[in-house]
From TrEMBL, chains A, B:
This is Helix-turn-helix transcriptional regulator. It comes from the Bacteria. InterPro entries: Tscrpt_reg_PadR_N (IPR005149), WH-like_DNA-bd_sf (IPR036388), WH_DNA-bd_sf (IPR036390). Signal peptide: none annotated. The lineage of its organism: Bacteria, Bacillati, Actinomycetota, Actinomycetes, Streptosporangiales. Residues 19-89 form the Transcription regulator PadR N-terminal domain.
Length: 205, 205
DNA sequence: ACCTCACATGTACCTTGGGACATGTACTTT
DNA sequence: AAAGTACATGTCCCAAGGTACATGTGAGGT
């Protein structure tokens, strides 16, 4: 077949491999996958069902997956093929990892100096609470896995590893937000005007 | 003016506010911004110059920025306007934060069970080294700021906060990778075949 | 018998992101 | 004087993401 998957040099695409990975656990329909994406990968990698169905078609055309069964209301479950399994294994071992973070909270922090100190404090408090909360949820989830609530299969162990990442990252962000609240709000500014910027580099043509 | 920025309900767009934020520090050209994006926000928020120029045009049309000066080789420096400054402040204080992580390393971990134990160990070792390395770089950068190498302006303090986030997150990821290496590689498998999956739902057409 | 809700799959459109390609200018080195 | 490099701005196209819209089915309640 001739389907072009990776533009020329072989860049990776996430949704595709996410779907292959989930299908490697066993057959599932687009609907199932949409839910599992939301439940399991949700906070880490969002995916909407239209994209999922579209991607499934493409994967099917490429021979990476095939229809496993037809169910009640038009339900179509897909099964991963040897080709698909080989592809996700290749991706996991050979394709280099994209390490960019893309965390909006962090991006925003570059511009904290533009915020009123009070607004910033309130913002950081909310952020801290939020991150601490999901960190706690993640910890609870990790504990359940450690108790063996979900068995000891390879999938479960991998989930456990992923959950550990979530725990640590969210906790790190919660700690960070807490720490950030202790950073003094820069020099006292001019007094009458709270806007410290926008003048700079006085005009020449 | 009538330019529609945020599709209906007011969703945020990152590049736009990233540019506004950088311009709030003072006038800069597209070229400058492309470099600053790469140097400062690089690992957190990648942006290519074509997008930057395009976005600058749009921001200019919207009255958020305006041409500040013309330089040597067609160089056009932009300056943020009051409107633009108000917009980024509004974004910072009013717009709710998107907390999704989108970290490929973590996404991959969901599928670690598909990897050969040896490959996985090698992978985790590389990941650990990589994360530890940038964490160290970030720490060095933080130390330089703490020594006051870059002054004590609001911008610098915000940068310091952002760097702290990078430090903590990368360190968390390094620790996570190290921890993950100690997780036993699931049940011993069948012995003759190292591929534990892909059979499920055994074949009929 | 009807209604409603969860299940299930898709199309259409618009925006965003990324890479390739194109163009031209000033400075610096040989 | 020529050549190379860093500066500087952009167009074009395709892939990917996100939202809205459209459609139909089966199970369970009233």
């Amino acid at each position: 077949m001739d389907v072009r998957f990776t533009s020329e040099d072989g860049e990776a695409v996430s949704l595709r491999h996410g779907l292959l990975g989930l299908l490697a656990e066993g057959p599932a329909s687009g609907y199932d996958l949409a839910r599992r994406f939301e439940e399991h990968l949700g906070p880490v990698w969002p995916a909407q069902h239209p994209k999922i169905y579209a991607e499934l078609s493409r994967l099917s055309d490429a021979g990476m997956i095939e229809v496993d069964s037809h169910g009640p209301r038009g339900r179509k479950a897909y099964r991963i093929t040897e080709t698909g399994l080989a592809e996700i294994r290749r991706w996991l071992t050979e394709e280099k990892v994209d390490h960019t973070l893309r965390i909006e909270s962090v991006l925003r922090s570059f511009f904290f100096w533009l915020m009123e100190p009070d607004d910033l404090q309130a913002h950081l408090r909310r952020e801290q609470e939020f991150f601490a909360e999901i960190a706690e949820v993640a910890r609870g989830y990790a504990a359940a896995k450690d108790r063996g609530d979900f068995g000891t299969s390879g999938q479960t162990r991998s989930m456990r590893v992923a959950v550990e990442a979530a725990t640590r990252i969210y906790q790190a962000l919660a700690d960070w937000a807490e720490w950030a609240r202790t950073v003094p709000p820069a020099v006292p500014a001019t007094g009458d005007d709270a806007a410290p910027a926008a003048r700079a580099a006085d005009g020449e043509t």
